[in-house]
Amino acid sequence: MSLDALPAAATTDPDVRRVFARDASGLELVPEAVARPAEQREVAELLRRATADGLAVTAAGGQSSTTGASISDRGLLLSLRGLRRVVDLDAGARAVRVEPGVGVAELRRLAAEHGLLFPPDPTSEEESTVGGAIACNASGARSLRYGATRPWVRALRVVLASGDTVELRRPGLEKNTVGYAAVQDPVDWFVGSEGTLGVIVEAELALLPLPARVVGFTFPFGDERAALEFVAAARESAAIRPRCLEFFDARALGVVRGTAGGEQWGGDAAALVYAEDAGERDEEPALDAWLALAERHGARVDDAALLESEAAMRDARRLRHAVPAAMNERGARCRAGGGRKVSTDWAVPYRRLPEAIAAARAAAERHGVEQPAIYGHAGNGHPHENFIARDASELAAVERAVEETLRRVLALGGTVAAEHGIGKLKRRWLPLQLSPQQLGVMAAIKRELDPQGLLAPGNILA
């Protein structure tokens, strides 16, 4: 399939190509062509023809990637938004089968109508698709209890670079000694592969019963370290069962307070922890235990808030999402000067989080860049740093500060990327964490499934 002989589902129209040139990374990469298939068979035919012609193909969903994984200036941008059928929802089996263009929030609402929960909850759930969530193994605030997307994927239908379609299902075995562990469950090859090994066109996902009752809390603190120590204590407490523990530093709180409805969030606190507790079956969340633990760790309990309605917790999630949304907008205004938002995605063992954040702040100071807003999934030892680089010079300084931080994070037993994947922006840091042998095994898998290297060029591997 050359660009001169595109099928009806594809176009080289400049206006359409520009629509698909940006995601949440701050990059802009205009594809050579865009395809918008509406059926799975079209995806297979597009890949078959692209491979025959040596044309690169990058799959995309809602394009909410923060790493540039869903954009490309090489070959065909394959938008899967048109594949949005809910094939089947079996409430008795607690399973749903969907196409990749179904929205994550849409799926969560559908499951709730049946008294069920799709546990993965990326902050961008209103913008992200199921296919994208699987492709980057998305997680979110409630991953503290439920984990990331991977454990909720039961089966996949994948179109390979050749155009062949394969059906994959987890083996469901309690014991298995056949072959290397890395090949025993091919579903795991594609979860988190960022479109580099195949294109997911259908997925079967596991669901849970909705919790009997959920409550949320906001706990303001006058001291950042006290807030982080409270997070660790909440994880380890036998009296409570948090399903999320979200941290906000003073800069992140400033963004929230500038958002409609967030004016009084945390008062003048230096840090805030947002937590949720979900009672299972007939259990009731342990409100008194939460308050006692927060008070012991220096929370301003008189200014704490209890959120008991679903509407109140939805609003809390909106305010939390306001932080990256506002920083994205600020970064976008700097593109003309060569700047953008820079977002980190590192994580450390949760007890090392105060040390890691202190190291990150020190690195920013050493490199002369403005301190970032730090917020996010402290319960998993996983905050986000959001920097705004106003021009190309500042961008280079921020990236030096980030690399210094990542080296310290790895020394603390951490990871350079916890939930957003590697994409194009973080590829340079992969060798800091993975050995040459690990990178070699990844390259071998890529060669086996995509011999010409046509799928998602630039993502993860060069």
Q: Termini, distance in Å?
A: 24 Å
Q: Name the CATH architecture of the domain at 86-209.
A: 2-Layer Sandwich
| Spatial ordering of strands, largest sheet | 15-12-14-13-17-18-16
Oligomer description: single chain
- Low-confidence segments: none
Given helix and strand content, the structural type is alpha+beta
CATH topology of the domain at 86-209: Uridine Diphospho-n-acetylenolpyruvylglucosamine Reductase, domain 3
Q: Percent of residues in helical segments?
A: 25-40%
How many strand units?
18
Strand content: 15-25%
Report the principal-axis shape. Answer: globular
Overall pLDDT: 94
Radius of gyration (Å):
22 Å
CATH class bucket of the domain at 86-209: Alpha Beta
The biggest beta sheet, please?
A: 7 strands, antiparallel
The count of helical stretches stands at 14
